[in-house]
Amino acid sequence: TLLGIRALVRAPADGYTLAVMANTVTTLPYVEKNAGYVLNDLAGVSYLAKSPMMLVVSANSPYHSVADLVAAAKKDPDGISYASVGEGTTSHLPVALFARAAKIKMMMVLYKGITLAIPDVITERVTAMIGTRPSVGELIKSGKLRALAVTSAGRLPTHPDVPTFAELGYPDAIYELFLGLMAPAKTPAPVIRALSDAFEAVKKEPEFIKRLENLDQELPTQTTPEQFTAFLKSEESRMKPLLKNVQT
Fold first, then answer.
1. CA 55 to CA 131: how far, in whole Å?
2. 3-class SS string, 143-157
3. Which of 23, 116, 122, 183 could form a disulfide with 187 if both were Cys (CB 3.0 to 4.6 A apart)?
């Protein structure tokens, strides 16, 4: 991700060098001391898609609800663990938001990839993890994992019985993995507008919408470069307090 962002910010601001980035684009400057960029070096072009995430535990776990997990964490602050691929990532931040809202501690267990963590969650070597529907959905259906909550604002059509963090009393834990198209910050506004309009036209095509659905992704409500850039800045502001003193 860093290599891609660094290449983007050094590229000519002519609309011919773009990058598709996820949530970590807003957090890496607070995790990596020598990130080589700040968010203002980038311009949002198009918010492409978003994916809700799910908090899961093993199907054999004694925790059948978020309330169970919170009660256990308050009783034993060092007893609840979660799988992550590192500080500032999409496997860390939604857990951090939830833990802060619930006023609990959860111990991060690091993995090189989230798929490597799934067997340890299934076998209860790690208590929990948060993952996207593609990564955990089939394991929930097959009875190997149990979903306790979803991070989106509303329940998921594919898992209508799983409550949202918001309805469980943790509205600050709403979090969705996003994918967005970005350009160097000095790209002329007419160029960004032309690119945005082209992508918005594609996002209205039924075939594209169907492909997103098959990937368990959704279209965002933000449809202009200005709205996407404002969203990026709001995410940066929201995540920054979670990343104090973690730069390496």
1. 7
2. CCEEEEEECCCCCEC
3. 183
Q: In this predicted structure, what is the pLDDT of residue 247?
A: 46
What is the model's pTM?
0.88
DSSP letter for 172, please: G
Tokens of 158: 């594919």
Give tens-digit pLDDT for 7-23: 999 999 999 999 999 99
**Contact predicate 24/1, CB 8 Å:** yes
Q: Which amino acid is at 105?
A: K
CA distance 29 to 232: 13
HSE-up (13 A, CA, CB side) for residue 202: 12
Which amino acid does the sequence have at 154?
G
What is residue 217's DSSP assignment? Answer: -
CA distance 50 to 31: 23
For 129-155, the pLDDT digits (tens) are: 999 888 898 999 999 999 999 999 889
Instruction: For residue 158, name the pLDDT band (cuts at 50, 70, 90).
Output: confident
